[in-house]
Amino acid sequence: MIIGLTYDIIRWEEKSIIEEANKLGHKITPIFTKDFYFSSDEYQLATMDVVLQRNTSHARAFSTSTILEGLEYKVINDARTLVNCENKLVTMSLLSKHKIPIPKTAVAFSKEKALEVAGKIGYPTIIKPVEGSWGRMVAKADNDDYLRSYMEYQDYTTLPLRNIYFIQEFVKKPDRDIRIFVIGDEVPVGIYRTNTKNWRTNTALGAVAEPLKIDEELQDLAIKVKDIIGGFFLGIDVFEDPERGYLVDEVNGVPEFKNTVRVNKFNVSEYLIKKVEEWIRK
Amino acid sequence: MVTLKCPICGGNVEVEDNALPGEIIEHECGAQLEVFNDNGRLSLRLAETVGEDWGE
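Output (structure tokens, whole complex):
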């Protein structure tokens, strides 16, 4: 199998994919996005059975998936899935439509309406960018004053969707959340991400990864989410609410998995490549 | 290994022969450098800072 790998930075994950693909006897064709261009007049790219999307930048990931799909390549994940994941408004709309349990979520297009709906959800509330990552600018507002300030900060960023206010309830989860991975039609591995010092449980913000035993309910939930969002390789973030149980918080279309491999001793890259091979051969 | 020049301090930087464009190297001068393909040969430039849309 010839596997294209489109990327903009070589992180631990990309090195691992390259190494495992080589071990399994596959050929990797690296596509460094900054060395890549597309012209409708002349375009030639090597033969590839599949392309793995690994760009860190959402814009580059979406653009290269779109272009490569247009050239009839199979891309994991495809551009539609990336939009469904990276734009939280889209993610939550889709999950809500299909009755997947999510934190109470509201979207407002003016500060007045954002304050009104936050009051209905009840403080503290969370405000986060519609498109954001690694927990950046995710803030907890304890009252109207805080929320008003956070919205003003958001207005003066360069975020493309800075005038859309994405508000969620603050879920009283334990000091942790859950990250589970869907690969193909399987849910092989996951982690708890625990942070006793910061309510934001992104590992990028210092949360500690611990192995997770995936129960049947979590597994079913992950597969339902995958069926709604699309894609082949997803990282799904789940909260444990003391009363309502599992709530899906986010879905990641270019997931990082270094800590998952480390604490579970589970080879995500090898598993992914084997599943991709099965899919290609079907 | 191949010896390249740091574009910031001019010092030598040892890079693996099989390094791929996009690899990030921390140089002793403090610069974070990105390997890139400069007309068929490996070279170094200052790495991009973390973008607003980076990450998961």
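The interface with chain A takes residues 20-24, 34, 36-37, 51-56 of chain B (CB under 8 Å).
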